[in-house]
Amino acid sequence: MSPVESVPIAILNHIDEYVELLYDDIPEKIKGSALILQLARNPENLIELARNEALLSALSRVLREEWKRSIELSTNIVYTFFCFSTYIEFHSVIIQYKIGSLCMDVIDYELKRYDQWKEKVDGKKTALTPDKNEIPKSRIPEPKRRPKSGTWAVADVNLQKARSLVSSYHEDLCNASDELLSKNDEEQLKRKLKALSKRQEQLLRVAFYMLLNIADNVKVEEKMHKKDIVGLLIGAMERHSNIDLLILIVSFLQKLSIFIENKTSMGTKGIIEKLAPLLDSPNPDLVNVTLKLLFNLTFDTKLRNKMIKLNMLPKFIQFTSDDKQITLAMKILYHLSMDDRVKVLFTQSDCVKLLTDMLLLNVNSDMSGEAGPGTTDVLLALCVNLAWNERAAQQMTSEGRLREILARAFRHRNAMLMKLVRNLSHHGQNKLLFVEFVGDLSGAITSGEAPEEFVIECLGTLSNILNPNNNIDVFAVVERYNLIPYIMKVLDPGEKCDGEVVLAGVVLAGAICVEERCASALAGAGGGHALVASLRHRQADDEHVLQTVFAFRQMLSHPRAAEHLVANTEAPAYLIDLMQDKNVEIRKMCDSCLDIISQMQNEWATRIKVERFRCHNGQWLSVVETLGAEGGAGDAADDLPPYLSAEYLTTHRLTTSDSQASLNDDTDSFSGEDYNRANSRNTQDGQSDDLGMSDSLSGKTLDDDAQFSKNLNVFA
């Protein structure tokens, strides 16, 4: 029965009388708060009630001082403020009297008290007791007034009688002794616990609802976070009997989960373990709001992994057959599919085949309702992710599904569906299935009728499958569909094609150069110059640079094309410049290209040798250059140049480990100009004279030579 159904109809003009009841005993306070609640439930009265400061002060004071004594009284007052919270104009009233903070304290106490009741009924020792310290009372002074009749002593006696009459189930439960309880007493306590739990859930529901309304203010929500609102909500989720309360709690958590601090707090408090059982609920609204919260949480990698550990993936897949839950289920599955380890789990059932069939049925279909075009887009994105897994790609293309996918892609010119086809073509086991569609792909590229996004995906797909190993005559395809003129047009900076189209053209150029005739034809048509010009304009894009260098590598694999590329273009110079690129893959590809060029009979071989030496010893050469700039005039004539020229490398043999014997020879180490230069420096410094130096050299013994060689070996 509602708290307001047992009281007479309230009248706004009698509001002062209802306020006076708040200063009487508990029964009168309950009656007065119920009458005020009646007025507050009518939106037309809220403005008048908000102007009555005496009313608001009395309500906040009674709630602050008496909420522990009566759940019904607390529910009436919180419900009254909830009516104010439904309109944002009255949120300032709730904030002014600090009702939100007080409600959180009430919720915390009630949750702890419920745990104590439950432990009493279950016969367990009380491990958790509510904090006995009262919440600080309101600083608003309570106006004293004399009783309507009699003296103060009589009023005190009446107050004591009223308190003794207002018994609570809580006292019965807390005073019960586990040792003295009979079966009848236990059954009675269980009934009382059920009744108290029902009343308490009403209070929790209206309190949480009020907090949810005022949480629209970000600053208020931050204060709630500091008081651990997430912990209170998760603590109240154990009450599975009250579906309405659960829906409210999960909705509140969903709103809070958009902030990373709240999401982190939910993760540490085991939110996923709490939500997993709710997916089995027969209530579709509860399942829907639970999926919404889980979708927000799937943006966190750790929480996604926890969902997988709890084996929630089959449940999400099951919801794809529910028209009401399919959109949320698809979004969650899409987020889960971003992890490569999870992609494999999709293949352990018929899920991939079912998703592919569902996609084929709904592509570009006019579906209405919640499972509309948005659902199809998410489903398509999910399939695109799964197509990266080899086993999933095999299931998608089995039983003639690839033909159906391609037919729908070309019929609707759907770029996303073509992206799915492109991902499927990455796997070697599927390449042979694309042979019969090479003509369709090439025609769509060169026809100029398809959208640009669709052409990009066709270029990528064709680049994946154009290979002689796939029983494809690459040169015949290139000649028939004029792919080389198309590539030259795309690479021309004057055409101002989109960067993605240019990159796809470079990839296609590298793909067709796997065949010698295609590589020669591309080089003869000026493909080398076009690739260099494209590289010059897009040298900041690492992916473009890498694909261009790969195209050079493919052309260098064939003698005629390699000779044309090296002799007539600036490709070798760019490759030498890219030897020191920050990208490791680019450096590796450049080294492979330069290895081929250095083996050819041309002037680049010597330059590559010098530049590689300088690249390998760059730090040492920089030190030499610094010393050369700061050195004296007397040493300049005899020092080496800051870098070694090609002539020096060809006429001088660098010392290696094989020439260790020459280092042990004293005549080679200290003779000629080296000895004279050292001797002159020592003489100028006044450290020794010519006689002393010559004596030190001539006075060496065999033991000294042996010791010198030993030390040199150790140093080496």
TrEMBL record:
**Could you tell me which InterPro entries the record lists for this protein?**
ARM-like, ARM-type_fold, KAP3
Q: Where is the composition biased (Basic and acidic residues)?
A: 128-144
* Domain of life of the native organism: Eukaryota
SMART domains per the UniProt record, alphabetical: KAP (SM01297)
The record's region (Disordered) falls at 128-148, 657-702
SUPFAM superfamilies per UniProt: ARM repeat (SSF48371)
Give the compositionally biased regions (Low complexity).
684-699
What are the recorded Gene Ontology BP terms? Answer: cilium organization; microtubule-based movement
* A single GO molecular function term of this UniProt record: kinesin binding
Pfam family for this entry, one: KAP
What is one cellular component GO term in this UniProt entry?
kinesin II complex
Q: What is this protein called?
A: Kinesin-associated protein 3
User: What organism does the record attribute this protein to?
Assistant: Leptosia nina
